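User: I'm putting together a small comparison set for a docking exercise, and I want a reference complex before I start. The sequence is below, and the ligand is iron/sulfur cluster. Could you produce the 3D structure with the ligand included, as structure tokens?
Assistant: Of course. I'll restate your input first, then give the structure tokens for the complex.
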Amino acid sequence: MRTPGFFCLLTCRVMTKKERYRFVIDWFQQHVPNAETELHYTNPYELLVAVILSAQCTDKRVNMVTPALFERFPTPELLAGAMFEDVEPFIRSVTFANNKTRHLIGMAGMLINDFGGEVPDTVEELIKLPGVGRKTANVIVSVVFDKPGMAVDTHVFRVSARIGLTTRAKTPLQAEQQLVAHIPAELIPLAHHWLILHGRYTCLARKPKCSDCGLTAVCKYYATDMKHLHEGSAGQ
Ligand code: SF4
């Protein structure tokens, strides 16, 4: 039987970028057709709050604090009128709670004053909000408005580079530009979740689970760094 490693020997060195993207997209479409955010929310305002809280924190932790936070501050109006002391206790267990408290109150105030209380639908407008960088803005436009925004977090950056979807990207913006140039616009919101979930559960930062991964046939990192390890352990 031909293993993924066998196909890699035949294809990795000569595979074009277009073919690599095609393989990866096909694989994810087949195996992870319904990828979505793991943050809990019921409307755009709640997702914006949750994504701000999730910076350098786990979705699991954020999901533990948001039910009580959303119950106490169900609208941007109520959050905008809150004092630091009113909000901070709700998110104390999240990383950088002090900064995030200020960002949440400031973000809600700007939503009320500049955007009529609605979450804006463009990256350019979203990044004006306190606590909202390009990554957060792309999450909002893709998840809420189904626009082709590719949010590049640490997982997307690492997995894309390892597979070979990006080449010599030095910054998240460079990675975003390369990914957006090759992935069909209608699939970008889904592709963002594919890459995040793959990084979170399979292509782990310290020890990628290549033996559980269906992308070994096209993965550059596997071909150069991991293949010999797996072949060595298989023969023991
Ligand atoms: S083969 Fe290994 S390094 Fe490549 S994407 Fe899969 S888990 Fe990551």
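The chain has two domains: 44-143, 150-223. Residues 150-223 form a domain with the Endonuclease Iii, domain 2 fold (CATH 1.10.1670.10).
User: Thanks, that's exactly what I needed.
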